[in-house]
Amino acid sequence: MEPVDLALCLDAASCRLCNDRNGTRMLRLSVDVGGTFTDLVLVDDGSGQRWMEKAPTTPGSAEGVMHGLKQLAARAQAKIEDIDLFVHGFTIATNAWITRTGADVLLLVTRGFRDILEVAHQRRPHIYSLTAQKPVPLVARSQVAEVSERIDAFGKIVEPLSSDEIERILAEIAARRPEAIAVSLLFSFANDTHERALAASIRERFPDIPIFLSCDVNPQIEEYPRANTSAASAYVGPPVARYTKALEDAVAKAGMYAKLVYMRSDGGVATPDSARQNPCAMLMSGPAGGVIAAVEAGRALGVENLVTLDIGGTSADIATISRGAAMLSRGRDVDGLPLRSPTLDITAISAGGGSIGRVDRGGALHVGPQSAGSVPGPACYGRGGTKPTLTDAALVLGYLDSKAFAGGIELSVEAAAQAIDQEVGGPLGRSTQDAALGMFAIANANMGEAIRTLAMERGYDLREFALLAFGGAGGLFGSFLVQDLGLRELIVPPTPGVFAAIGLQFADIRHHKQIPFPTQLANLDPAALSGILLAAENELREQLSRDGIATDRQRILFSADQRYQGQYHEINVVLADGSVSTLPDARGIAARFHEAHDLAYGYANPDATVEITNLRIDAIGVLDKPTLGQHGEAGNPQPAGTRDLFFEIGGAAHPTPIYLRDDIGPGSTVEGPAIIQQYDSTTVVLPGQVAEGVEHGFIRIKAA
Known about the structure:
Elements: H1 16-22, E1 27-33, E2 37-44, E3 50-56, H2 63-76, E4 83-89, H3 92-98, E5 105-110, H4 116-119, E6 144-147, E7 150-151, E8 157-159, H5 163-176, E9 180-184, H6 193-205, E10 211-213, H7 214-217, H8 223-253, E11 259-263, E12 269-270, H9 272-277, H10 285-301, E13 306-311, E14 316-322, E15 325-326, E16 328-329, E17 332-334, E18 337-339, E19 343-344, E20 346-349, E21 355-359, E22 365-371, H11 390-396, H12 413-428, H13 432-457, E23 466-470, H14 474-485, E24 490-492, H15 499-503, E25 509-520, H16 526-546, E26 554-564, E27 571-577, H17 586-601, E28 610-621, E29 641-645, E30 654-660, E31 669-671, E32 674-677, E33 682-685, E34 689-693, E35 699-703
Parallel strand pairs: 1-4, 4-11, 5-6, 5-9, 9-10, 13-23, 23-24, 30-32
Antiparallel strand pairs: 1-2, 2-3, 7-8, 11-12, 13-14, 14-15, 14-20, 16-19, 17-18, 21-22, 24-35, 25-28, 26-27, 26-28, 29-30, 31-34, 32-33, 34-35
């Protein structure tokens, strides 16, 4: 069989070649690589069937993905070459940044600015601390080289970049032989001539060294965030390139012809070449799938306001969905360093199934940030781990079934209890169960505080929000958090452990372009604005066409970063959706900004001067989506057994019924306390709560 080129056939459901090859069967694969487990989901569009698999993550390697893929294909009785679309989310870029295992980078800056990453800015997380330490830059000062050139704030060349200076830089690169190069020259967002000339010479002399220019990565005012974002792209670029190319080679060797796309931080997907061109856009690739799935779930259930809680083996990822839309951030800090790239507004804290409990010298109990990961894993895995984790705590409290755990791992209650006694119970003088409940209480408090802070910063009233909990451990903590925070209800999806992987299949192709446009609205030239946006639109539509997206499936969104004159921070305001012809005039643009400012800060000043700093154009290629599916029939579920559970420190064990998730259909109810058990996750229903099965296989848990 000759390979079918799907490069121009991303909408495979309507492709004659795909349908000729597979008959009427359209198979979609999504893979979400987490810190502990790799989640795989295969969907047959024709029959609506789904198959899922969980495999231990192999950090930095495609081996875990391929191992899980072979098991999944066998379970579905499908051939790997029959898969049409492969959507992949991963944490390679994030891990390289946080663990400081990225590339050897050379950063080129304007002469006099070698200390740009060291000086950083004047913000301090602890302003009264006399011993506070700045975050360590991704690129050391010794790896920063100065370039003799200068462009002023208005884009005028003050000191030209000479050919002799370019030769000097080339000689320095030859001596250093870095893995990647970042270029961030002063005011290149206003005039990129010097950056592009330097890059052209470097590419000609060193074609194998990737180069990342600030005028491409982040063409925006403020030299430090721009330099750090450019350096970050270079820092995580080689690890991302190595992983993605290794994965592509592995799936090709296995005979897969599917179109492969990668999840981006902004909730869209990118082709392999696009992902490698700007690897910073992949930093939040892992948790983005869960937020996209949550938007679809909220739409299906008629719930507009959601807090999403994705708890895996290493972290708890929290996001908000307001009025049916996921929040998008244009910049954020990662490990204390600024990143200016569109990302879904996700907050991560160290509270996963592998988070380790410990008692400090003062006798205080802590959970995280250290994690046992997948190797050696929690003590109960029996793989050499000796530290007590939240998984161990859940096991000794009766929340988990030792013989029905994801990944086929048989858990050891004895090993979990021994680790908790030694590291927590003994030092605190508490029983095994009380120590485990203490670990749960600390983790719940940490997650609750993160949710409260997120809601407070955005002006939300948590009483108007439901909690959508997923991930392998989401159902273990969700009921506690709903009770503690006063949220309306807990919603648990039908397959919580692979919900983020399912969400990858609801993503669309996205491209983003940012253009500096420093202009006061009072002086706005509508023709100039329309011309710039139209040129950008045409460029992005060409990219979508190269991705195989038909014109009628292309959507363009125009927005602008705006502020009052004299302000330091901007608010992104949508200008038009679909066509430049629908742009409002200057007065309309100002009105939208005043409204957004009032919503964000509680006040607006219609008499103040408003200015635009940047224009942003988002191009979306709409892909076909799978259905959420249906689940079972209404009935009267019966317990499959009972287990002793512990809910209160010092309290007695509760003989608690255990229900199988497959037995809970629409209209079925289960009164707490109860455990709802399934292959990929476990849900705890507390005393005084009632769980009800609803459409699409979801469960909604509320106070009785």
